[in-house]
Predict the 3D structure of the following.
Amino acid sequence: PPNAHDIEAPVRRRTNAGRAALTDGITIRHATPADAEAIARLRIESWRQSYRGLVPQASLDALNVEASVATWRRVLAAPPGRASVFVAEADGRVVGFASGNRLDEAKHDCDCELSAIYLAREVQRRGLGRRLVGTVAADLASRGATAMLAWTLAGNAPSRRFLEALGAAPV
């Protein structure tokens, strides 16, 4: 996982228009049960945008906000240390989230996994995903994790590029 210092500095990159894109003004914090609905809605919205053509449309249409909210409430109400879930907030609105957890048994020599990383379209490609993943990784590392596994669909080229840019290698 990235070191804690990897997540503290503002991340700058050039946009297509040549302007510096910053994640300043976006706060990353631990998610709480009160964030369950925003997380569920963002996850489903992201799935429907990102996985169109990769996942059967009927599966995307069947995604249910209420069921997802209930799941996220359980995850976020779990005892501390079970899951590591952080949200990115801008102007009081959740615009991204990432979650990870320790694995009961190591997989591919990894003892934790990145279970989700989703951003609202308007904040993508600004370094926020890197900050969220770094925050989850640092939190898991503080609890003894040493190597993180991340899953993505083979056909999801943007996700693969993002994870590879973070240092991930296909297994």
About this structure: Residues 1-21 have pLDDT under 50 and may be disordered.
